[in-house]
Amino acid sequence: GNSVTQMEGPVTLSEEAFLTINCTYTATGYPSLFWYVQYPGEGLQLLLKATKADDKGSNKGFEATYRKETTSFHLEKGSVQVSDSAVYFCALTDLRDDKIIFGKGTRLHILP
Amino acid sequence: DAGVIQSPRHEVTEMGQEVTLRCKPISGHDYLFWYRQTMMRGLELLIYFNNNVPIDDSGMPEDRFSAKMPNASFSTLKIQPSEPRDSAVYFCASRPPRAMNTEAFFGQGTRLTVV
């Protein structure tokens, strides 16, 4: 079945550091890939998405590229801010499945 | 659209009491999901509906939990009787038809505390 594996946290960085959160997936079909972000006390909200191979999703300075050859969708940001402190979830959907498959989430702490 | 709306935002109840959580999905979405989030277990799918019909309830922890979707614009998750270990944040999410292969939209959650 489909699955998502993302790096475990917590990840602690200083402000303006470069961020990478790794995500790899297993899917039998042609999934769409997502990154969700959850700020403290809030629900999950979509950060970015990519629907086919080699697509790059981007939002708020974050980027992720759908790499079919490595089955990866790593999240990157060039210069993080304290306000980026949150939990980040990698996820996928597939036309063959109703459910959204989530990774376990990665907690990110940014120090001023 | 106002997004997925959940109520209440916070609920504190005594052990043994019945608790009902409510969700209004986004209009036109035909999937509705109920999730539970705790520090220990992370995000767990409890049950989901398609066109108001329960499709998979294998994530419902016990018979004390039940969910209904009487129409396309309303769903409830009920816990009766509640126990302290049910304390968690419960999220509702809705999603367009599967053929669109797109994301789900989450509500703000209900933080349940059972004392």
What attributes characterize this protein structure?
heterodimer; A: 112 residues; mainly beta; six-stranded mixed β-sheet; B: 115 residues; seven-stranded mixed β-sheet; four-stranded antiparallel β-sheet; 0% helix
Report on the structure:
- The complex is a heterodimer of chains A (112) and B (115).
- Chain A has no helices and twelve strands.
- The model of chain A has no long low-confidence stretch (mean pLDDT 94).
- Chain A has strands at 3-6, 11-14, 19-21, 23-26, 32-38, 44-50, 56-59, 62-65, 75-77, 86-94, 97-102, 106-111.
- Chain B is mainly beta.
- Chain B has strands at 5-7, 10-13, 19-24, 31-38, 42-50, 53-56, 65-71, 74-79, 88-95, 105-106, 110-114.
- In chain B, the strands form two sheets. In chain B, strands 2, 4, 5, 6, 9, 10 and 11 form a seven-stranded mixed β-sheet that branches. In chain B, strands 1-3-8-7 form a four-stranded antiparallel β-sheet, with no helix packed on it.
- In chain B, β5 (42-50) and β6 form a beta hairpin.
- Chain B is globular.
- Chain B starts with a strand and ends with a strand.
- The chains are: A mainly beta (112), B mainly beta (115).
- At the A-B interface, β5, β6, β10 and β11 of A face β5, β9 and β10 of B.
